[in-house]
Design goal:
This protein has one domain: Globin-like (Orthogonal Bundle), CATH 1.10.490. It is an all-alpha fold and about 140 residues long. It has eight helices and no strands. Bound molecules: protoporphyrin IX containing FE. The site of protoporphyrin IX containing FE (HEM) has 22 residues, from helix 4, helix 5 and helix 6.
């Protein structure tokens, strides 16, 4: 009898442990492969946008891809570390206007649409990406 109770308790613990493990946004998105797809699309969007492209005139695009992907992974709760400067340090001297900030977000949304990311997940990711908006803008 005691043996059965112990087995039952062990099973209950196992089930509750599984139930409480929540899925991360990173997993819901589709992990590294989906983030790579979004970033590839985003770079393409920037490349063909004559307003935003000039901001990247002096940039090492491979580095941007690496750091930006890392950051999306961290923002979505993935198993990564972001290894660069703060958003204020990176963007502070660029004199980014509010209109250009919004346009960049639009380009990012295009990139997610082309990667078939559901809108519910798009909103969550944008929300996490734009919390440092004020520090990036030239106000
Ligand atoms: C939506 C929010 C944004 C996020 C989360 C974001 C994130 C990042 C990250 C992680 C990097 C790489 C940093 C590094 O190389 O160390 C980066 C670089 C860069 N971002 Fe943003 N960014 C955002 C908005 C913008 C906007 C609105 C612009 C311009 C209109 C912009 C222009 C740039 C440029 C030009 C670089 C390259 C900097 C360099 O070459 O040193 N970003 N961004």
């Amino acid at each position: 009898m005691v043996k059965h109770i112990v087995t039952l308790l062990a099973l209950l613990l196992l089930v509750s442990g599984c139930a409480s493990r929540s899925t991360t946004l990173y997993e819901e998105l589709g992990g590294e492969a989906k983030i790579n797809e979004i970033v590839e699309n985003f770079v393409y969007e920037i490349e063909y946008n004559e307003t935003i492209l000039p901001y990247f005139a002096e940039s090492d695009i491979e580095r941007f891809i690496t750091k930006f992907s890392e950051q999306l992974c961290v923002f979505s709760g993935g198993p990564c570390e972001y290894s660069s400067d703060t958003m204020e340090q990176v963007h502070g001297g660029m004199n980014i206007t509010e209109a250009d900030f919004n346009l960049t977000v639009d380009l990012f949304i295009n990139a997610m649409n082309k990667a078939n990311v559901p809108h519910r997940l798009q909103n969550q990711l944008i929300n996490r990406m734009t919390h440092t908006r004020r520090q990036m803008l030239y106000l």
